[in-house]
Structure to design on (227 residues):
């Protein structure tokens, strides 16, 4: 089944403890992206990648890192999480710019 | 900068009634347009998209949308809704020239279908 898989689905962590949210797609998509969803602010892009080793900032990149060493994987790294990063995170992938993104099921992160 | 406005934050409707979810976008240049649906505790699922060509776009689950360039609108419609259509719906726009294919989302419309 074609899908974007994120792990974990739920995560509660403490301020400052480094964490990684994994994302993998099995559709051989070139484009991958991370979004966060917050009440009242909607969905905002954090980072995106157009291909292996090609990444760039979205609208809200502060406090996040990403890497794209393989085409299928696009992990999101929070080096020192803070409470304002408590959010619902979505990884997404796309065949091309106009194709529309396929989204993962989301990771609900709580930083205390 | 582009923006997307979904004119109704909540739309209650009875089962088997028609529904229209309204979406307006700000850009007057060429854009790609999308509608996504989000069921509780799930990710977003693509309902339909407009890239070019026919202004009436048909999607999954019986939904359709009409692109109106002069009114910069992309309203979503369904002639007869089911209880299972209860979800949040997001309109999104993308600039074809944007390198990362970034989607700009509206704030979402909660569709509540009542028996």
């Amino acid at each position: 089944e074609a899908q974007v898989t994120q792990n974990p689905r739920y995560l509660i962590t403490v301020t400052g403890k480094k964490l990684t949210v994994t994302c993998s797609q099995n559709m051989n998509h070139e484009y991958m992206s991370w979004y966060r969803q917050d009440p009242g602010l909607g969905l905002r892009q954090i980072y995106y990648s157009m291909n292996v080793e090609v990444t760039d900032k979205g609208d809200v990149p502060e406090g996040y890192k990403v890497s794209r060493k393989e085409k299928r994987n696009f992990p999101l790294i929070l080096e020192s999480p803070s409470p304002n990063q408590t959010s619902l995170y979505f990884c997404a992938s796309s065949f091309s710019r106009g194709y529309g993104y396929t989204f993962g099921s989301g990771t609900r992160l709580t930083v205390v | 900068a582009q923006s997307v406005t979904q004119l109704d934050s909540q739309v209650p409707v009875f089962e088997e009634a028609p529904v229209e979810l309204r979406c307006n976008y700000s850009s007057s240049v060429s854009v790609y347009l999308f509608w996504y649906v989000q069921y509780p505790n799930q990710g977003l699922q693509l309902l339909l998209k407009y890239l070019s060509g026919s202004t009436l776009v048909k999607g999954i689950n019986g939904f359709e949308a009409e692109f109106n360039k002069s009114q910069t609108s992309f309203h979503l419609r369904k002639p007869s809704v089911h209880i299972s259509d209860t979800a949040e719906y997001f309109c999104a726009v993308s600039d074809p020239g944007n390198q990362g294919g970034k989607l700009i989302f509206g704030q979402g419309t909660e569709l509540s279908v009542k028996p």
